[in-house]
Specification:
Bound molecules: glutamic acid
Shape: elongated
């Protein structure tokens, strides 16, 4: 028996982090078992489905490296992979259910159904529709359907049945058929509804395991009954825990970004997001948190997926992302970060920009932080003169301090042009040595704070020696002189 798993996203919104996590777990399971991972698009909701959402889902999954073996894009032997293109298949099975009296036409108007639901809710009873049309003579029903426009096709849910199944994650589960009602399966033979279409597709596409979010558990008994009525084999079920916000309620926009796009735009690396998502509910045991995709494929197991909700911890994502950023070679970091750098960075020699990136690399959590952290390397800093004040220094003290720095910097005698650069270049250690020789053991802040501030215009940054190493002697001197003028 071959392992075949799928995700079945509806293109009614941008790729959600929950869908991406479900896709990842399916993908990891399939790859580990030598099976196939399939993407099927559930676009039967014509009003809400949009091609741009479908495109976004494909792009997001591709960016994450979660590649499908079969999908609307790559095709495959069990296509088409869009529900809207499979209408003939659904019609066949709906007609089968109607012919076998497993399904029936319900002629209640929307208004009647709405009133019934409200009355049941008001009486604190489950809002189930137990339909009297289920016993209507099929010939009569067929005639009526030609004159009435208000109708829907429902499943004739058997009474008093216990529907049990073994969930790979949640263990044995059992549902009472009397709590399902005569649920709807299609509006028309060619307009199927979710619970029905999913059963037909999973069967036709030979899906062996249905791995999906816990929010679908309540649908599973319906799908089991439908599969039984159609004479289909059942897949193995595995329901993944919900993703929760820090307050342990279901993750939503209220908690922050929920679409994969937003994470991409904030400068998370796809491999870091994959690593992080794998840990959203999968518990490998032990302390280890960093796993490459290959390692995930090796180590992943559905048995180690927890039942309880998985809290989405952005701090952990930031930490993981930082770990991945630090592992990038400088050239690769530049490739990934270029859209986040000040736009005029291209006017500077590549070795200069690489040097800037390497300086910030140990501190980054997200690539998007790079622009603001490094802007002063690509334009003169802007700041208020108050920034230059260390403790209770007077303006005069600051001027004296900067004059001293100017003297020290201009006296540095280690001209060494860096590849791709003109101007004198000195290493941070050389600069440090000269400074410390000059200023001795006194209050270093009185020299180094104003110096660092005039170089960067920032309240926080790397130290002045590291910065001067990159800026070079000329540019550093120019910034010190500009500050002196500001103080005059
Ligand atoms: N279209 C459903 C969803 O996106 C698919 C559920 C399923 O996997 O059965 O949630």
């Amino acid at each position: 028996s071959t392992i075949r798993v799928r995700i079945a996203p509806s293109p009614t919104g941008f790729l959600h982090i929950g869908t991406a996590r479900t896709a990842l777990f399916n993908y990891l399971f399939a790859k580990q078992q030598g099976g196939q991972f399939i993407i099927r698009i559930e676009d039967t909701d014509i009003e809400r489905s949009k091609p741009e959402y479908e495109k976004n889902i494909f792009e997001g999954l591709r960016w994450l490296g979660i590649d499908a073996d079969e999908s609307p894009e790559v095709g495959g032997p069990f296509g088409p992979y869009r529900q809207s293109e499979r209408i003939g298949i659904y019609r066949k099975y709906i007609e089968q259910l109607l012919a076998e009296s497993e399904a029936f036409y319900c002629f209640h108007s929307e208004k009647e159904l709405e009133d019934e639901k409200n009355n049941l809710l008001a009486a604190k009873r489950p809002p189930l529709h137990l339909c009297e049309y289920r016993t209507m003579d099929p010939v009569e029903a067929a005639t009526l359907k030609d004159v009435k426009s208000d109708y829907i096709i429902r499943f004739k849910t058997p009474a008093g049945r216990k529907i049990g199944f073994a969930d790979l994650i949640r263990g044995e589960l059992s549902f009472d058929s009397d709590l399902l009602g005569d649920f709807s399966i299609a509006k028309r033979p060619d307009i199927p509804l979710y619970n029905f279409a999913v059963v037909a597709d999973d069967y036709e596409m030979r899906i062996s395991h249905v791995i999906r979010g816990e929010d679908h558990i309540a649908n599973t008994p319906k799908q089991i009954l439908l599969a039984e009525a159609l004479g289909f084999t059942q897949p193995v079920w595995a329901h993944l825990p919900l993703i929760l916000g820090p307050d342990r309620s279901k993750l939503s926009k209220r908690h922050g970004a929920t679409s994969v796009d937003e994470y991409r735009e904030q400068g998370y690396l796809p491999e870091a997001l994959v690593n992080f998502m794998a840990l959203l509910g999968w518990n490998p045991g032990g302390e280890r948190e960093i796993f490459s995709k290959e390692e995930l494929i090796r180590e992943f197991s559905l048995e180690k997926v927890q039942k309880s909700g998985a809290v989405f911890d952005v701090k952990k994502l930031d930490w993981i992302n930082g770990e991945y950023i630090r592992r990038l070679p400088p050239e690769e970091l530049l490739k990934r970060a270029n859209t986040f750098l000040p736009s005029n960075y291209t006017l500077y020699p590549i070795p200069y920009t690489l040097h800037v990136l390497v300086l910030e690399q140990p501190r980054l959590h997200k690539l998007s932080e790079i622009g603001e952290r490094t802007d002063y390397f690509f334009r003169p800093p802007e700041y208020d003169k108050e920034l230059l004040r260390w403790k209770d220094m007077s303006d005069e003290d600051i001027s004296v301090s900067l004059k001293r720095s100017e003297k020290i910097v201009s006296g540095i005698e280690y001209p060494r042009p860096l590849a791709g650069q003109t101007g004198r270049q000195v290493s941070r250690d050389e600069i440090k040595k000269v400074f410390f020789n000059e200023i001795g053991e006194g209050d270093k802040g009185a020299i180094l704070w104003p110096l660092r501030a005039v170089l960067t215009g920032k309240g926080a940054s790397p130290g002045p020696f590291e910065i001067m190493e990159i800026l070079g002697v000329e540019e550093s001197l120019a910034r010190i002189r500009a500050a002196k003028k500001k103080l005059m």
